[in-house]
Amino acid sequence: MSGDGFREVGVAEAVALARDGFQIIDVREQAEWDAGHVAGATLVRLADVPTRIGEVVGDKGTPLLVHCAVGGRSARASSVLAQMGYTHVVNLKGPISHWKELGGDWDEPPQLLTPSQTRRYARQMLIPEIGAEGQRKLLDSSVLLIGAGGLGSPIALYLAASGIGTIGLVDDDVVDESNLQRQVLHGVDRVGMRKVDSAEKTLAGLNPETRVVKHAERLTADNVERLIAGYDVVVDGTDNFDTRYVLNDAAVRLRKPVIHGSIYRWDGQVTTFVPFEGPCYRCMYPTQPPPELAPACDVAGVLGVLPGIVGLLQANEVFKLVLGLGQTLAGRLLMFDALGTTFDEVRIWRDPACPACGESVVQASTRQPTVMVGR
Amino acid sequence: MSTVRIPPVLREETGGNRTVEVHGATVAEALEDLFARHPELRQRVTQDGELSPFINVYVNDRDVRYRDGLATEIGPDDTVILLPAMAGGAR
Known about the structure:
The structure holds two protein chains of two kinds.
Chain A: E1 7-9, H1 11-19, E2 23-26, H2 30-34, E3 37-38, E4 42-43, H3 49-56, E5 64-67, H4 72-83, E6 89-92, E7 106-107, H5 115-120, H6 122-125, H7 131-140, E8 142-146, H8 152-161, E9 166-170, H9 195-206, E10 211-215, H10 224-228, E11 233-236, H11 241-254, E12 258-264, E13 267-273, H12 281-284, H13 297-300, H14 305-323, E14 332-337, E15 342-347, H15 359-364
Helix pairs in contact in A: 8-9, 8-14
Chain B: E1 2-5, E2 19-22, H1 27-37, H2 40-45, E3 46-47, E4 50-51, E5 55-59, E6 62-63, E7 79-84
């Protein structure tokens, strides 16, 4: 018995007292309570004990077990209670964190994130619009990157680092020395390796929790639906018109948002296509241009940082789509000029006559729009 | 004069210039003046006398398809943007 009119016990004994029917008073703060608390306990913050205890415990002879985190605040509360005339006060002196492992009943909210996830993503979760719930959405999301090269590299690195749960990579190419100037997923020791394998290795080092799904094939009309069906968002970093049109038409059919990026020497373009909500690629360019209008990087050349800048603008769109926040580039084409360091944008409209998403398609379709992202 | 912005894939036809200053009260007139200054652009931007379907034309941020097409009026502070599809990316 303490000299202050209350008794002190350790955690094991306290668990036994709780089973014996002691009323449990938790004098910690609300946030500590919210993170987890003894089952059946009542929260009366230390500062509130004198004013609130009367409404919680009517009979001053009720056996009370008072606790906080380790026993300091609860000792003060116990002393106050004894002075107020409570005759059967027991203070828990010991870490309440041992309560559960010593067999006590414990209530806690379902944990959205593991402790290591909470540490890893702390800076991002501090952003009020994200928090633990937003981080959970990112971890539950899946993003397919078409191409693990110039645009795919920065996108994959940042998506993995910040906790996008599943990253699919579609690329049938192998790493070439001439890629290394801009394709930062790959290093000199990867030359000759399949890009999907090299990317998997790099991403595993960055975030072992990321699930990397390798599709070592070229996207074609035959495999496109199979490839994109399981993903929330598709990021288009391809190098040719064939793939862009095949991808667009399938994405519209399956109602998958596509984040479009393209680069050429000093210039880059980014936009986001959200099927039936904004324009699609065919609304902009209904038919496929001749190849001479689309020389690839290996013919035209490209500044090393350009795919970094354009790719990260695409990655930024991924976050907004998955989190359901902000304004995406749907309906806007953003153009970056590295020589002038200027950004310009033009508006792009849904074309009612669009062969992929126009009125005839909408009328023929009986499918209802489904929410793919932003859960 | 209005400004025509030349996309990267067409800059060889303008000697590397990224913008060209042109006269004209409409998009059509501005393009005619552009072709007069850089004749090689005509065959890249037009097809059978019409605008190529592979190149979009904007006045400032508006697609002329949703305004008055080539008859869209322009003023001295306007920028005409020629925007062909761009494909470059991964490899």
